[in-house]
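Appendix C reproduces, verbatim, an entry submitted by the partner laboratory led by Prof. M.T., so that reviewers can inspect both the input and the predicted structure.
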Amino acid sequence: MQTETTYDEARERRFPEQVAIVIAKDAQGKYNPIAVSWTMMTSHEPPLMAISIGKTRYSLEAVRLAKEFVISLPSAAMQGDVVFHGTKSGRDMDKLAACGTKTQPAVKIDCVILADAVANFECKLVSEHETGDHFIFVGEVVASHMNEAASVRRLYTLGNEQMGGVLPG
């Protein structure tokens, strides 16, 4: 049986929820990562993925300027990186350098991928949509990468500042 409640109370039941790190080159030429939960695949042909970034976030302008971005699915070992990239601003620092996040060059776009992630998707910006206090960016996947180790667990947020890893299918 369902009981009517507030939006805020009901949305707390969404956990576990995926977490990703989105990276785009900013106006200063730095590769700027941001931790996000709102990302999804939207099409198989062509392969399209979407991300949602808040209007006040520094990364919003980086994605717009670069017109390309990486969606990285972090491993459980990257919990500290996710927290760092989700709580610090690229306005104030080079977050990849400050955190020590391991990267590799992307192959099809001017960006980096995260070496310890479960998977990375290089995307070219296709469209942008305003949705209240966020913008949704849709990107065409032009290159995909996966961790060599099949045993690497993907990180999810469990709520209340807790995270855990699960094995990908």
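The chain has a mean pLDDT of 94. Additional entries are available on request from the coordinating office.
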